[in-house]
Design goal:
The protein is of the alpha+beta class and 133 residues long. Helices cover 20% and strands 38% of the residues. The protein contains 3 helices and 9 strands. Bound molecules: cobalt (II) ion.
Amino acid sequence: MLGRLNHVAIAVKDAVAAARIYKTMGADVSDAVPLPEHGVITVFAVLPNTKIEFIQPLGDNSPIQKFLDKNADGGIHHVCYEVADIIAARDALIKEGARVLGDGNPKIGAHGKPVLFLHPKDFSGALVEIEQE
Ligand code: CO
């Protein structure tokens, strides 16, 4: 069920500025992409085996604003794992008592694929995103 680590997300005040040092280290860095449905702007640094997703608040009710209020210099916000079948993964997790955030239905994420977020209390304090492969 559990596949590759798709990305590690780092919440920051300025995603383009945050990604610059990764460019210096030779990573391919994407353009900034606004995702109004998720309340963030994303920039990806592509590494050989995974990606780093910089997320910056977008709009007044960004879900990462509170995190940035607490972590003014930015910080690791979530990890994203790939799953072969997001509905099957969700249903298996719910059956085990894990909590799915939001209305429980996948949204389209930064890669145009369905994603869901899972409660940090069920994952050792880490916010987990799952993405359909
Ligand atoms: Co993500």
